[in-house]
């Protein structure tokens, strides 16, 4: 069974987020087109998940540098490493990924960055070789639905987009090279066209879902 991991990263409700609205439109169209697929919805702003913190880093160092057995870690270190592994495994099991996020200060929301750090882990989802990192998650695809008040997908401001460009790069490191973008942008800079901008993005989402 094909599994889709649908990841949102916006503390707002869908009523107040055009990005989430477009994301829900895509998800509904996807469900209708792929009724046999399993869909896992994960909201990084509301779901509790283990991040890479001091205990996790110390545990990794003990396992690697001190060559300790996992059972020799402290109970807290064991619990946190196991919890982080669950996040990594959840992400690695998926066949398709949809990331729905706003651009914040020209980058990703911090909770989404923390979620990415929880599954982009050497030895788990990529490894190092002489020529550089080699991704271990292959034959997978991703869609990034990104919302921003201004326009950053093209033109002189495109160099300021450190959100989609970063996601595209980091997914490539773990082996996911089929990464598409669906931008919902410019609705704040052009309020007179806001409804048309969102409507066009929703139409694109509906057209994209069946083949995706």
UniProtKB/TrEMBL annotation:
The keyword Translocase does not apply. Signal peptide: none annotated. It holds the Pfam family Flavodoxin_2. It catalyses: N,N-dimethyl-1,4-phenylenediamine + anthranilate + 2 NAD(+) = 2-(4-dimethylaminophenyl)diazenylbenzoate + 2 NADH + 2 H(+); 2 a quinone + NADH + H(+) = 2 a 1,4-benzosemiquinone + NAD(+). Keywords: Flavoprotein, FMN, NAD, Oxidoreductase. It comes from the Bacteria. FMN binds at residues 147-150. Its cofactor is FMN. Residues 3-207 form the Flavodoxin-like fold domain. It is an enzyme of class 1 (oxidoreductase). Also exhibits azoreductase activity. Catalyzes the reductive cleavage of the azo bond in aromatic azo compounds to the corresponding amines. Quinone reductase that provides resistance to thiol-specific stress caused by electrophilic quinones. Homodimer. Belongs to the azoreductase type 1 family. This is FMN dependent NADH:quinone oxidoreductase. The lineage of its organism: Bacteria, Bacillati, Bacillota, Bacilli, Bacillales.
């Amino acid at each position: 069974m094909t599994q889709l991991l649908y990841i949102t990263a916006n503390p707002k409700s869908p009523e107040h987020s055009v990005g989430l609205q477009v994301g829900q439109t895509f998800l509904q169209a996807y469900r209708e087109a792929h009724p046999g697929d399993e869909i896992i919805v994960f909201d990084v702003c509301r779901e509790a998940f283990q991040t890479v913190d001091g205990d996790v880093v110390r545990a990794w160092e003990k396992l690697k540098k001190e060559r300790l057995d996992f059972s020799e870690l402290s109970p807290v270190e064991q619990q946190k490493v196991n919890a982080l592994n669950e996040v990594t495994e959840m992400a690695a099991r998926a066949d398709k990924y949809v990331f729905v996020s706003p651009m914040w200060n020209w980058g990703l929301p911090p909770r989404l960055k923390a979620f990415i750090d929880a599954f982009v882990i050497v030895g788990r989802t990529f490894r190092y070789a002489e020529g550089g990192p080699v991704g271990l998650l292959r034959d997978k695809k991703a869609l990034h639905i990104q919302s921003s008040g201004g326009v950053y997908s093209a033109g002189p401001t495109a160099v300021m987009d450190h959100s989609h460009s970063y996601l595209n790069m980091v997914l490539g490191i773990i082996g996911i090279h089929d990464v598409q973008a669906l931008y919902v942008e410019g609705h704040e800079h052009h309020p007179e066209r806001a409804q048309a901008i969102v409507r066009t993005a929703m139409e694109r989402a509906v057209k994209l879902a069946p083949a995706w």
